[in-house]
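User: I'm curious whether this sequence folds into something compact or stays loose and floppy. Could you predict its structure so I can see for myself?
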Amino acid sequence: MDLNLIYFLFLLPLAIVGISCSYTDIKYGKIFNKWIILGFIYIFCLYIFIFFFLEGRVYIFKLILNGTIAFSTGYLLWYFKLWSAGDAKLFSVYAFLVPLDFYSKSYVLHFPSFNLLMNLFVPLLLVLIISALIVTLKELYKAKDRIKKLKLPETKRVFQLLSYLFQLFLNYVFVFIILQSIILPLTKHFPISEVFNNPFFIFALLLLTIVSFNKKRREKKWLNWVLYGVILAYICSIIFSGEFFDRLINLLRVSLVFMVFVGLTRNILNLYVQKREIEKVKIKNIKEGMILTKDESSMFLNKIKEDFGALDAGGLSKNQVKLIKEFFKNSEELEIKIYKTLPFAPFLFLSAIISVFTQSSFLVLIDKAFRYFL
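Assistant: Here's the prediction. I'll summarize afterward.
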């Protein structure tokens, strides 16, 4: 195959779709489906052309496998409300349009587009964390006089806090045991085992699992006994292994590091969101795509139960906007809180550009960092 021709056929439409979607996302706050549809139609025609006329059957098979896994990953991220449907579809288009050669320095077997995710989320997360730290320091400076006047909490409250932290720590220990003893050994049989064994993937999986499991534990108390039973069974299993203390200390150390890191990150980001990323709009001015805060979402779901539907990262639908305005037609001046939307398409396009020009990703640096500290 003529690689220069392949690069041109792939990268030109990628640039067109990337620039167009970035523009519409910045200006209108939307990724229009027409660009996604045109992108998939072009991909289908291009793959047919390469398959039959350039004799690239093996290459196309690898591209289709990578794109299919990317599409499934995008769907899961949308399902867990981490991004909108438009962002998930645009990510899939990029996955199908970035030639495999541009992942050469950080190639993940069967799913090289994992690099796109790394080159997307790492810069985005760094920007948010730096901004959040600045906001946190400013808030601490403003509250310095109040902090000086704080008194030590009562003994009862100290024990309550320590009890909460201990229970949270057990959550991390439990999840790490499940990951280490069940999930990771099973993933060795999957074709994308390199992804599963990457520390960053483990961290992301841990974060999602912790949040979900902690919520379920509060709802269903019997899960506490499952947690205690699993931890006890694991300790019993390693008592006679000859590496009892090493394995136990490693488990506790890793769990503690992640608990502190995740806890600090979440609290700093929550403060940043509350101070900088929330604004008020009047009922009469709400529009499709706006994202309600958690409190506002609960209020509307409780008050407008019929046909309101679920809320996701894509924001309010046309029908939901209509239902809210009808329900509050006599209170149009009422203000509600919404999250300021961040255009995601430019960051997605940037991740594709980074992948093309570097042929690598932040995955390499993250992997080294995690292995150094853990």
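Summary: The longest strand covers residues 278-282. Strands lie at 278-282, 291-292, 335-339.
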